[in-house]
Amino acid sequence: MYVQGFIVPVAAGNKDAYAATAERFWPIARDHGALSHVECWEEDVRDGEVTDFRRAVDAREGERIVFAWMIWPDKATADAAHEKVMADPRMAEFGDMPFDGARMVHGGFTPLVERHA
Question: How big is the CA angle at 111 (ends 41 and 56), to the nearest 5 degrees?
């Protein structure tokens, strides 16, 4: 398993547009190998003493934090999917994104501990 995660600031007024974008993106990612996709809207994100989610993405007044991840079978599948997803004709239909991608923090991770109830 390989996990790609990210956090991004989104204007509070763009919540519905962001959710719609995420919903439209999932079938594209799935068709190129993703196993699951979770997008979470800020509910309880506190300011930290030294660092926090807001500082990490330079969040501004009126913005909320989205915390999300996508699970792939392995890193090779995720890496191969990147170019395929960007070249997928459905991506051209998105237009302007409802967030500032330049302030997105993202990365890929191999699970260290995984437990399920």
Answer: 40
Angle at which helices 75-87 and 15-31 cross, to 10°: 110
Residue 68 β-bridge partners: 6, 39
| Tokens describing residue 52 | 């926090």
Q: Taking the model in full, what pTM does it have?
A: 0.91
User: Domains along the chain?
Assistant: 2-109 (3.30.70.100)
| pLDDT (tens place) for every residue of the chain, 117 residues total | 999 999 999 999 999 999 999 999 999 999 999 999 999 999 999 999 999 999 999 999 999 999 999 999 999 999 999 999 999 999 999 888 999 999 999 999 999 999 999
